[in-house]
Write a structure and sequence with these properties.
phosphopantetheine; holo-[acyl-carrier-protein] synthase activity; UDP-galactose 4-epimerase, domain 1; EC 2.3.1.41; Acyl_Trfase/lysoPLipase; Non-ribosomal Peptide Synthetase Peptidyl Carrier Protein, Chain A; 2 strands; beta-ketoacyl-[acyl-carrier-protein] synthase I; 3 domains
Length: about 290
Amino acid sequence: MRPEVEQELAHTLLVELLAYQFASPVRWIETQDVILGEKTTERIVEIGPADTLGGMAKRTLAAKYEAYDAARSVQRQILCYNKDAKDIYYDVDPVEDEPAAAAAPTPSAGGASASAPAAAAPVAAARPSSSAGPAAAVADAPVGAVDILRVLVAQKLKKPLADIPLSKAIKDLVGGKSTLQNEILGDLGKEFGSTPEKPEDTPLDELGASMQATFNGQLGKQSTSLIARMVSSKMPGGFNITAVRKHLETRWGLGAGRQDGVLLMALTMEPAARLGSENDGKAWLDDVSQ
């Protein structure tokens, strides 16, 4: 074949292929169904100068998957590299080392009290002085099933713990909102694995008591996920869950079980925005621990 013919054929083929690409559908709806529906992707990051695709994905989630996500307790993030870099990297900024403690710190005589924990969240009763050394250890106690149950209901209803009386059932607390009731029941199933029959009609104290028989004293999948999300989104960069628990241990003398109690309480007292510094994070934890 002569070179000029080959050149003409190549030109024609290129034009036809480009025309086909421009005229063919991009199958974006099907792509979203695979990403959001089939794969149930929870975190999407768009790499580009604007959140064009991310914006469309958010609209699709609101229109098509919102009820599905609520029923299955799926929480998603749609992020854009150009706008959400800190959230993408969990705002991991360098943190200055804390100054070394005094050479001979005097143990605090008024350390955290070892009194019995409150029903909602077992925490220390007395706030140690900021100048004191490590707090005296408090006898540890695991959280109870009713503690987790009450916090999950309060967190879903966006109410303080005091507004969730244990004498009421989930059906009474949601005020007839069946979708919200189903979301709470889904959270409980995710947390405890199974629930008694008709849990929505049972007062919270009775429901918690019935679930306590098979409860292992450890935070479940739902509460652990909520705590991790709160720490990553509201605590300052570098102040992760390990640092949070370390502060509760050294400042308040709390063991793992009582730390769980504080973190559960924190879910109902979540800051409105990310805290600005590690000192702010510690001060907020101290307020929750009182």
